[in-house]
Amino acid sequence: VQLVESGGGLVQAGGSLMLSCAASGSVFSGNTLSWYRQAPGKQRELVAIISRTGSATYAVSVKGRFTISRDNAKNTVYLQMNSLKPEDTAVYYCNLLEEGPTPSHDIDYWGKGTLVTVSS
């Protein structure tokens, strides 16, 4: 499985961006997809998760501003980011969790990331 993010860039505070993550392989539709981000000098943190059924969960810091969605026909997951703040500046990573028969058999796939910079 390969994941390729796109859509990052420079935006002013209050602006919007939509990130996309296209996946190769045949495991997309049956698995959980997530967006993470890592700001300079900080640990990677979870931003949003969308289950195989489309149920979404968000970090408190982005709830109400970001929306995660998926298009299984296109093997693509999206992150719509509105009302962006300077503290949203980070490299955003796409993650696919391929669940095995037990958690110890789970496999995580990661993209290389796309940089989002929000200026004040």
Can you describe what's shown?
This protein has strands spanning about 5, 10, 15-25, 30-40, 45-50, 55-60, 65-70, 75-80, 90-100, 105-110, 115-120. It is an all-beta fold. The strands form 2 sheets. Strands 2, 4, 5, 6, 9, 10 and 11 form a 7-stranded mixed sheet that branches. A 4-stranded antiparallel sheet has the order 1-3-8-7, with no helix packed on it. The protein starts with a strand and ends with a strand.
Radius of gyration, CA atoms, in whole angstroms: 14 Å
Unreliable stretches (pLDDT < 50, length at least 5) are none
H-E order: EEEEEEEEEEE
Taken from the alpha-carbon principal axes, the silhouette is: globular
Characteristic key phrases:
mainly beta, seven-stranded mixed beta sheet
Summarize this structure briefly.
It is built from no helices and 11 strands. With 120 residues, the chain is an all-beta fold.
List the helices and strands and how they pair.
Blueprint: E1 3-6, E2 9-12, E3 17-23, E4 32-38, E5 45-50, E6 56-58, E7 66-71, E8 76-81, E9 90-98, E10 107-110, E11 114-119
Parallel strand pairs: 2-11
Antiparallel strand pairs: 1-3, 3-8, 4-5, 4-9, 5-6, 7-8, 9-10, 9-11
